[in-house]
Design a protein that fits this description.
Number of strands: 18
Number of domains: 2
Distance between the termini: 112 Å
CATH topology of the largest domain: Beta-lactamase
Shape: elongated
Radius of gyration: 33 Å
Helix content: 25-40%
Length: 607
Amino acid sequence: MINPYSNRKYIIGGIFIAFALIFIIRLFYLQIIDTSYKFSADNNSQRRITKYPARGVIYDRNGKILVFNEAAFDLMVIPQQTKQFDTIDLCSILEIEKDEFTKKFKDAKLYSTYRPSVIISQISSKTYAILQEKLFKFPGFFVQGRTLRKYPQPIASHILGYVGEVDPKKIKENAYYKQGDYIGISGIERTYENFLRGQKGVSIFMVDVHNKIMGSFAEGKFDTAAVIGTDIKTTIDADLQLYGEKLMSHKKGSIVAIDPSTGEILMVVSSPSYDPGLLVGRIRSKNYVNLLKDTLKPLFNRAIMASYPPGSTFKLVMALIGQQEGVLNANTRYPCSKGYAPLGGHPKCHPHGSPLDLSNAIGHSCNSYFSYVFKSVIENKKYHNTNKAFEAWRNIALSFCIGKKTGSDFSYELRGNIPSIKYYDKIFGKGKWKASTVISLGIGQAEMGITPLQSANVVAIIANRGWYYIPHIVKSIGNNTNDTTLARFKIKNYTMITDTNIFLNVIQGMSDAVESGTAASLKIEGINFCAKTGTAENPHGKDHSVFVAFAPTNNPRIAISVLVENAGFGAAWAGPIASLIMEKHLTGKIKRPDLEKHIMETNLIGD
């Protein structure tokens, strides 16, 4: 007879095996997959302190320090290790409100209960000294050292940029960054972040039940050293930058100066500006909000992000295109009767002799002349088609980096605008527009927009007779001037106009502007230079004062673009500022102190 209980041993054995498997799987999950208990155990006996490297120092072209570092400290917390403590006492030491501390502590818990996170950043050395003596009263809290940016002079804020706490998006994108890390937000700090930041290290310590460090874990076997960030030498001349910012005080606008022979940017002024020190430390958030609310927009980098009509300065490019397209030469003459006659005197023009040849038309900035030139380019018979002629005109302009980014190492550079055929077809209808419809493009108005950086680059191209290096603000990374990151700045770029004689005719016109034309009042003793004044029409208020120039005429060492918003004629404000900067750069001194004083002391913004 079969025993009905004979299979029980197998059933019971199976149950024990199942329980054993469940236990083993659970152990595997807790020890291998779920690391929270391991972290918790480790954190009770160990403290991992990140060693933040000092960011690289930033220098000007002559070795002057623009940005360096100073010591600072962060208060860290591991929420799981905290016990009941005197919140009022801790807040008193940290000099913060209890509500603020409570919110930060809650945020730290939400981030992780067993991982360390920053609760109060950038504590001063004085506060750190007080806190160190009382830290034993606050289990789960410890201090971590780091550095903050420091500025010897409050200049070049838009060039240098600023550093801020990394956001969650960046943390997800890049495993290097953790909550509480800092990262370059704008300017050089952003563009060259990977070089400036260095490499974090870590020190692992053993701690007792009172949260006191007892010594290095495993005698420091698992510690790693921090690698200091790489220093960077910029192309900026700190003295020239400071001088330019003083000239633009109480004015809105920008200055960009480039060495045409190298593409190195000598100075970039965006005004109004701000003290870069305002965006450092615990005051950064409050100051950032205040700057953001400022109606003068000091955070806005006008030099690379503001798009203005080039105005009469575009006549230089128009003259080049006309010659390239074979519809213009040095002897071509057009009349002017205070305006462009075929359209009833529009665009209007100021009184001057008539008719004029090319160099005199540039020198006296004749609107009528360049309206005729634009018409001849767009109605060029070799194309038999307005669209094809317009596209040819537009492509040549684009080759000067008008309406497209220069490719500089500035963060957030914008492209400006040259309207397209598609745009005008949408506005006027396909086949329903012609040269006379968009005649204002010939004098740099209508929908055309150019950034001050692009404008300075155009002048550098003319100074070089047709070629340019991409404008850039970093000269070398560390001791390596040949870093591959900078290689693209050493390649010559050519426009679609390669005939040197075409440029020489325009340069002669720019020289005439200084000798006897619209810039005659701006001569610099002992320096021959070429220039073009401009008045950019502004639909939102008074016209902008614009001026471009390069000096000396032969072997140029500086190409400059100045724009002063709502300041009228180019020779009134932008021109004097440009001439003073060229004089300062080339001679190291100013022989026109009265002009300098007048520019510096005049307020064109108001209260």
